Amino acid sequence: MPPVNAAMRCANFEERRDRAMALFAEKGFGQVSMRELAAHVGLTAGSLYHHFPSKQDLLYDLIEELYEELQATLDLGRRAMARGGSALSCLIAAHWQLHAERPLQFRLAERDFCCLSEAQQAHLMLLRRRYETGVLHLIAPRASLKGEALAATAHVLATLLNQLPGLLQARRLPEGEGLGLMESLLLGGIERTLR
């Protein structure tokens, strides 16, 4: 039998992660046993434990990956600004695309975050706050609010960027119309809140 190359192993692992994510999204994280998860992804329980010590670690990995992707959208916004473009338009388009590619990860991050350990939640909250701060600095760099009001504004803006694409895509809005509506909603909120 020929040896399995690293690219094939990586592809198989990614496919299994996607199947695990789909099962968590369909049934709910708390309703899936490790044995059921292993059978669903085509592994023995022992093999699954080789990759992840617990299903909680797998969920954490999926949500952490999403936050890394969200952080990468900020780099796109910075590059758009450096070219003289709109950071907001770039962020909206990047979030729309990310939601189209990873809707299940967004669902898990919102619904099953509470299933993680306190340490895992604390680390993800740090990633979330860093992302929220980055969003605010990009799209409202001269915000006049201070303290908790500023932090709350950053949270709301990031939440809108993360949830509007899913809501609008579920309504089957064409991409151009959805992007335009997102921009109008976010601009309206920014203008009123950050004057």
TrEMBL record:
Known DNA-binding region: 33-52
Lineage: superkingdom: Bacteria
Stretches of the chain forming a coiled coil according to its record: none
SUPFAM superfamilies, A to Z: Homeodomain-like (SSF46689)
The cross-references to Pfam families, in alphabetical order and at most eight, read:
TetR_N
Give the keywords, sorted: DNA-binding, Transcription, Transcription regulation
Query: Which residues are in the HTH tetR-type domain?
Result: 10-70
Protein name, entry field? TetR/AcrR family transcriptional regulator
